[in-house]
Amino acid sequence: MDFRFTEEEEAFRKEVQDFLRKSLPPDWLGVDPGPEEESREEVYPLALEMWRNLGAKGWIGLTWPKEYGGQEASLWKEMTLLQELAYRGVPGMDLAIAQADLFLNFGPEEQKRRFIPPIARGEVKWAIGMSEPNAGSDTFAVQLRAVEEEDCFVLNGQKIWSSGAHHAKYQVVYARTDPDKHLGLSVFIVDLESPGITMRQITQMTGIPAFCEVFFDNVRVPKENLLGEKNGGWQILLHAFGAERTYGLFIIYNAKRYLEQLVQYCRETYVNGQPLAKDPLIRNRLAQIAIEIEVGLNLGHELNWMATQGMPTVKASSQIKVHGAAVAQRMANLGQQILGLYGPLNEDSKWVKLGGRFRHTYLSAVAFSMAGGTSETSRNHIAGRFGLGLPRK
Amino acid sequence: MDFRFTDEEEAFRKEVRDFFEKELPPDWPGVDPDMYHEDSFEEIHQVSQEMQRKLAAKGWLGLTWPKKYGGQEAPLWKQMILEEVLTYRGAPGYDAYSFLGGCGDLILEFGTEEQRQKFIPPMCRGEVKWATGMSEPNAGSDLANLQLRADLQGDYFILNGQKTWQSAAHHADYGLVYCRTDPEARKHRGISIIIVDYKSPGITMSRIVHMSELGAFNEMFYDNVKVPKENLLGELNGAWGLVMAALSHERTYGVQLIVNIKRDLDLLVQYCKETRVNGQPLAKNALIRNELADMAIQLEVARTLGYKLNWMALKGLNVITTANQMKILGGILTQKLAILGMQILGLYGQLGPAGGNWRQMDEKKDKWAKLGGRMKHLYLSTVCNTIAGGTTEVARNAIATMGLGLPREPRPEKK
Amino acid sequence: MDLSFSEEQEMLWKSARDFLANKCPKTMVREMEEDEKGYVPELWKEMADLGWIGLPFPEKYGGGGFSFLDLVVLLEEMGRACLPGPFISTVVLGGLPILEWGTEEQKQNILPQVCEGKAILTLALTEPSARYDAASIQIKATPEGDNYVISGTKLFVHDAHIADSIIVVARTAEKASPEEGITLFIVDGKSPGISTFVLRTIAGDKQCELTMDKVKVPKANILGKVDQGWGMIKKIVEWAALAKSAEMMGGAQQVLEMTIDYAKERVQFDRPIGSFQIIQHYLADMSIDVDSSRVSLHKAAWMLGEGIPCTKEISVIKGWISEAYRRVTAQAHQIHGAIGFTKDHDLELYFRRAKAGELFFGDADFHREIVAQQLGL
Questions:
Q1: What is the pLDDT of residues C76-90, one digit of tens each?
Q2: Lowest-confidence range among A261-265, A309-313, C82-86?
Q3: What's the gap in Å between the CA of B228 and the closest CA on chain C?
Q4: Fewest Cβ atoms nearer than 10 Å: which of A162, A362, B344, C6?
Q5: CB C164 within 8 A of CB C188
Q6: pLDDT above 70 as % of chain C
Q7: C274 closest CB neighbour out of A267, A322, A390
Q8: Which chains touch C (3 or more CB pairs under 8 A)?
């Protein structure tokens, strides 16, 4: 047993840290992982720049085959990068990475060559078209129709909660090609500039218009944009769920940054002549969050190790997702408690503390137990046949 | 809206307080309303019996019942006040369940005149103890799954089968036993309630000890037990309707738990004021203050809800949702308090006499126990508060479906 | 990073599990709660013969030379089986300090006996203030010729009544800071002036009141340096907390397994209760508590074995598992319903041990304070 990272991994971590020191503004307080905060006007340019810079460094798709622009590096190297990015709250790492993984596993050569290299270069952004008004946790309840014609598929319907779609070039769309609920989905690569597509941005309670509704009105999609087999979408969906291994871990790294900012704040802030850091209640509660984060990170490292060993990871990734969301929410709550009346202030307020990050996380953390799969469905996965083996009915 | 009690109510409250001040033994730390201590330890059982007689002499058993059966026809609020004071003092001898929503109320509402004449007066005179026979090894939350057979043969029901978790049974004279009288009918449609004399031949009991070391429960085995058919309560195969009525009366459990645990909160506060660690009273420890205050807030909120529940009952409103809420709060908050008490006592929380029996403290083994080992006992005994008398999960189901109007979970197809 | 067990560790836990499944039935566990000594001497001898008691001690003293992580692997199995007896007292509270700070003579006198299963040790640290801080050490040890004389009462001393040697923590000087002036003494358990009796505790473990009435201890029995004992105590507290966390881990895993099995078997409403979503979610949450504890435990133990400072990691696991194990047992009870809260069901053994473990060498608040310090607060 050995909990150390290798010298190579540590060296790479340092390389990433140096890169971030140079690429990020000196007073960078961080943004949450994922495309949501990129929709802030002031963040988007940096996000685009970071995406390109990461591409220029060859750090997008570290594990991908070299022929598509990858480095064929180890999973550990990729995790080292992604964890550091989450911890520093770096924008720009696009959902495209997860989509490229789908091409690598399900796409024909032609699609791999067409789509993966631009992603590796950080030139193009992608969105996911999975959820619909009637297909949330019940993912297979997709209704958006894709009807096969001679030279294309014609898509009609609607997607919702598509993060960053308004910035994306392509969307990976899960559509119904057959009435069979589970065996009737197909996956399409849709150019979001296609005729027939309209979008409406939805503002989240954080105030950021990060989501989109995407409407498909007789949108023609070339047959070569079908990913995998017709009606074979279930396989891709399951793979996508499994690949969602990392979300919980990134949430926890993200929370670690917030915690450290809070600790620093407590050390520097005096109330009635005493630093907040000496308040017994605050010490106790910050320590508890630190413990929960530490324990979560340990779970996450174990999960990564299991992935490198080819062990099944459904249970562990679901566990860390549930834990990560809960810890982030508790941390956000604690942040508000500690900041007191200052907690709810907007980032542009004269009196705001910590750049208003804690107001933001209090609102954004609400979504952590829903996005990418709710904590309830995660618990179902833990309990079910990939986990504890509990019976269905 | 007026949250005050009337002068009359306050006067009665004072009367009850004074009574217990006078009648309880001076060292009485209080027993829990589940009566497990009274049923487990002979010396405490004695005190309980005496108190039951004293309460009867005051006319305080079956307060609201018709005078012709020995009750006082007093208003319900009087019984509520009695129970509140009694529970807060931890007084023994009063089985609230028997008198409200349980045995007595059911007999009065659904019994024949003969049954009322026969069974109610001794209850009011404090001469008997009653129990309820519901649970079986395969009928816990799924009560309707019960199997104990009662076959009508001539003038008698013949009972065969097994009950379990029968609290109070070894001291009880009678029980309301839920039996299967129609094996062909679907589950809850074939159940009857039969009044059984617990001294009947064919009944054997085997004590079950709770993890708190209280010998409070029994398994009961029925081997061809003959019960006169006149002891059928209500309609044959009609018990389920009675169960529903009983549940709607069953206010008391959650309320009692909350009132009872206030005594323990007060005990903890006092302990923190008096106990110094490294020169400082525990009461000045910031973490402890915060947690005690938090506990006090939750208890106060629950207690106020309990008053509302009582008021609703007085008004004849439907209390199912609120009663279930109180049951949940009662279970959870008592457990939280036990955890807090253990936290405050630290290493000392581990110490105390078996079953929390303060009358049997060993001068060496229990020498260092604080508060008579009450917190250790609470920690072990409260485990069942979210299970006994209906689990928290079942209570939440009731709130969700009957209270919030949410759809029931679809039943699986029967194989 | 490699989170697998070595072959040796795999063998260790598997053989320990089989051995204890056979030799540590719950009937024996319950008997030992009532038993005066609290352990079965024949079993202790067998454990010594297996090399368990000498596991972390160097071979030159008759030990196995295993790491703390190996010890943790073994302790998990002991926790799973609810093994009663003075194992942690002897190996961790008594043996490891002597190994770390003892003179060669002290080590030779005591450690081989320990490894052979012939000596039981413990540590007398807490006093009636029942805290683990330096200011709470008030018992005085006064020099008199070639001896020190110790008088006073220690409380919650595990296995003092059967210990051959007791490491007593006493104050030898009053200095500016309470952390200075503390000394550790290896006291013969049969010294005149020592009296013990066993307290009745929630888990039936043998915690004692230890009274010393002018007990003479030769100066040669000082462990480490005079007045400089507190630094040693801090380390011992860490080892003890970690060892107990391992035992708790094994118990928590067993409770989870038991409850999953029960949820699959118990039928109500014509279906196994494990098919109800809420039960599934309870068990899912329990599994998070259990699995997160395990990896955090192993990390701390590995670090300790590698000589990497791990004060924070040890307080992380003890602070975490103190509450996680309690949650797991409470939730297990809720799922088991009434059958689980009877005295003769196994579950209540774990519930009580979870509480005892929580309090052993620092509850969650104690360890959170250490983490707070580590955070720089």
A1: 999 999 999 999 999
A2: A309-313
A3: 32
A4: C6
A5: yes
A6: 100
A7: A390
A8: A, B
The answer to whether A141 and A134 have CB atoms below 8 angstroms apart is: yes
- In this predicted structure, the answer to whether residue A62 has a pLDDT above a threshold of 70 is yes
Distance CA C212, CA C199 (A): 17
Question: Chain-centre distance of CA B13, in angstroms?
Answer: 21
Q: Is C171 within 8 Å of C154 (Cβ atoms)?
A: no
Residues of chain C found within 8 Å of residue A388, distances taken between Cβ atoms: 260, 280, 283-284, 287
Give the mean pLDDT of chain C.
97
> For residues A248 and A226, is the Cβ–Cβ distance under 8 A?
no
From B141, B208, B278, residue closest to C342, measured CB to CB: B208
Residue partners of B186: CB distance under 8 A and separation at least 6 = none
| Domain interval for residue B188 | 131-238
Q: Do residue B412 and residue A280 have CB atoms under 8 angstroms apart?
A: no
Nearest-by-CA chain C residue for B377? C202
| One domain, residues A76 and A196 | no
Range C226-240 average pLDDT: 98
HSE-CB at A176 with a 13 A cutoff on CA atoms is 19
Do B153 and B40 share a structural domain? no
With CB atoms and an 8 Å threshold, state whether A379 touches C365.
Answer: no
Domain boundary among B193, B216, B238: B238
Of residues A266, A295, A378, nearest to C316 (C-beta) = A295
The mean pLDDT of A147-153, rounded to a whole number, is 96
Q: CB of B212 within 8 A of CB of B356?
A: yes
Residue B340 amino acid letter: L
Distances (CA, A) of C233 to C59, C133, C227, C236: 25, 10, 12, 5
What is the SS3 assignment for A75? helix
pTM beyond 0.90: the answer is: yes
Q: Does residue A393 lie within any of the structural domains?
A: no
Q: Which tokens in the block code for residue C331?
A: 């939730």
Give the whole-number percent of chain A exceeding pLDDT 70. 99
> What is the number of domains present in chain A?
3
Residue of B nearest to C330 (CA): B383
Task: Tell me what pLDDT residue B92 has.
Answer: 94
In this prediction, residue C325 carries a pLDDT of: 98
**Nearest CB to C264; choose among A76, A380, A391:** A391
CB-count exposure of residue A26 (10 Å: 0-12, 13-18, 19+): exposed
Q: Assign a CATH topology to domain C122-228.
A: Butyryl-CoA Dehydrogenase, subunit A; domain 2 (2.40.110)
Last residue of a domain, one of B176, B208, B238: B238
**Orientation angle between helical segments A314-339 and A375-383, nearest 10 degrees:** 140
Q: Residue B6: how many CB atoms within 10 A of its CB?
A: 10
- In chain A, pLDDT over 90 holds for what percent of residues? 91
The answer, yes or no, to whether residue B413 has pLDDT greater than 80, is no
**Number of neighbours of residue B201 by Cβ within 10 angstroms:** 10
Q: Is C269 on the interface with B (CB under 8 A)?
A: yes
Domain assignment present for residue B115? The answer is no
Question: Count of domains in chain B?
Answer: 3
Confidence of residue B242 (pLDDT cuts 50, 70, 90): confident
Q: Which of B277, B285, B287, B291 to mutate to test the interface with A (most CBs of A within 10 A)?
A: B287
Q: Residue C270 is nearest to which of B287, B364, B414, comparing CB atoms?
A: B414
**B350/chain C closest Cα distance in angstroms:** 5
Cα diameter, chain A: 78
Based on the domain organization, do A316 and A358 belong to the same domain?
A: yes
pLDDT tens for B194-205 read: 999 999 999 999
Q: How many alpha carbons fall within 13 Å on the CB side of residue C371?
A: 30
Which one-letter DSSP state was computed for residue A2?
B
Q: Rounded distance, CA A120 to CA A57, Å? A: 10
Q: Give me the pLDDT at residue B216, please.
A: 86
Determine contact: B410 vs chain A, CB below 8 A: no
Q: Kindly tell me if the per-residue pLDDT of B414 is higher than 60.
A: no
Find the domain containing A227 and state its range: 126-231
